[in-house]
Amino acid sequence: MKVTAPPAVSLNVSDPAASSRFLVEHFGFTEEMAAEGFHSLTREDIGMHVVFLATGLPTLPEDQRDIHATGLILAFTVDDLEGELARLQAEGVQITMPLTEEEWGERAFQTRDPNGVIVQLLDWKVSS
């Protein structure tokens, strides 16, 4: 198999435009394509696309059309976790999981987009 494009994660949501605006406004994504019920976003530094599809979209197989994006986290490793937290709070973004530190060194906080998709920013505390 030869992969010819960056990977994409596609998420079914009730309002793709709202999720798209959230990632553009607060996380620096660029909307590359949009049509009725479809928004594709990217950032050059992550090498992937995030696609929001409208629930009920007839182009999806019938058994997938009405399944809302749940049980997943869009997680992005950043270089200034506290700075990103302060920036998002200043922008009025609701933080739904406070900054936490796990025993294995992961530090993270979360927010949710208007459709409930979890966006997590994280870093790793390296033991010395």
From TrEMBL:
Q: Which Pfam families does this entry report, sorted A to Z?
A: Glyoxalase
Entry-linked SUPFAM superfamilies: Glyoxalase/Bleomycin resistance protein/Dihydroxybiphenyl dioxygenase
Per UniProt, residues of the VOC domain are 5-124
**InterPro entries from the UniProt entry:** Glyas_Bleomycin-R_OHBP_Dase, Glyas_Fos-R_dOase_dom, VOC_core
Q: Which domain of life is it from?
A: Bacteria
State the name under which the record lists this protein.
VOC family protein
Protein source organism: Pseudonocardia eucalypti
